[in-house]
Amino acid sequence: MSEAKGTLSVVGIGPGADGHTTPEALHAISEADLVVGYTTYVKLVRHLIEGKEVIRTGMTEEIGRARAAIDRARAGARVALISSGDAGVYGMAGLVFQVLREIGWKRGESPELRIIPGITALNSCASLVGAPLVHDFCAISLSDLLTPWEVIARRIEAAACADFVIGLYNPASGRRTRQIVEAQAIIRRHRDGTTPVALVKSAYRKLQSVVLTDLDRFLDYEIGMLTTVLVGSSNTFVFEGYMVTPRGYTNKYTLEGEVLPGQRPGRSLVVAGAIAGPETD
Ligand code: SAH
Fold first, then answer.
1. 84 φ, ψ to 5°?
2. CATH code for the domain defined by 122-244
């Protein structure tokens, strides 16, 4: 290993390109000597990496990608390992730590690690349909390549039963089509068929598509690898083509900010010039 200390930036590039990539992520990519990533994501940032060395690999070669990035950074290179969305949400960040642990890396040694956050699919997809995640929500990946289906099914059941808004990542692929059908059946046992469901495909990319439908009908539409499925809670409603989950305080306050009978007002800091009323964040 060389003396020079390298850096490994684990970069979430957000849903598509540029406008929704943070300046910090763009900076890490532009200052890198080497960019490593799945071919599709490398393509999304190709205008930033002209003249740079690039290692692009297929979806199933994730361990090889993480190892290559770590080896080169350890030896002194500035490496950007890119993931779509946020690298820490079903992305490469976990694998990086697994490999680092395996090779006995210690904090302070080369490479220096930087984890750069990105807008995850749940956020980008939610923004395209309205405000579905304003109350408690959870994310579940339907990919059973690395997690046994019984574990996934138990989590869907628990989330459905506890009335979370549910964001389903990896809902289906060409070969994997059964999971989303089973997920629908599990959730349907706990929620009305009219519960709003949004299907967002390729958010903020060229082939973006958004479908707003409901729990009984969403399987009639195309769902693939680039789709995120958002299933509303029992409070979620549709308004002017938007999917909205209220924060919950309409049960406590009128929209004019008055306290409803039987409710105690929440305390809020009064700042000169601030709008009086319920806390909004
Ligand atoms: N690290 C990524 C998630 C990778 S798992 C993130 O934080 O977003 C891959 C799954 O993410 C896809 O199957 C899809 O469900 C979701 N996804 C990623 N990018 C998306 C996009 N632009 N539009 C819709 N869904 C997306």
1. -75, 160
2. 3.30.950.10
For a mutational test of ligand 1's pocket, the pick from 84, 92, 207, 222, i.e. the residue with the most ligand atoms closer than 8 A to its C-beta, is 84
Among 89, 141, 228, 230, name the best residue to mutate to test ligand 1's pocket (greatest count of ligand atoms within 8 A of Cβ).
228
Question: Which residue owns the Cα nearest ligand 1 atom 5?
Answer: 90
Q: Give the contacts of 30 (CB within 8 A, at least 6 positions apart).
A: 48
Give pLDDT tens digits for 225-280.
Answer: 999 999 999 999 999 999 999 997 566 666 777 777 777 777 665 555 555 555 54
Question: Could you give the CA distance from residue 73 to residue 80 in angstroms, rounded to a whole number?
Answer: 9
Instruction: Output the CA 84–ligand 1 centroid distance in Å.
Output: 7
Measured in Å, residue 121 CA sits from the centre of ligand 1 at 5
**Domain 7-119 class, CATH top level:** alpha beta
Nearest of 94, 182, 179 to residue 142 by alpha carbon: 179
| Atom 13 of ligand 1, nearest CA residue | 170
Phi then psi for 238, rounded to 5 degrees?
-110, 135
Summarize pLDDT for 74-110 with one digit per residue, the tens.
Answer: 999 999 999 999 999 999 999 999 999 999 999 999 9
> pTM for this one?
0.90
> 149-164 as b/e, with b when 16 or more CB fall inside 10 Å?
eeebbebbeebbeebb
Domain positions in the chain:
7-119, 122-244
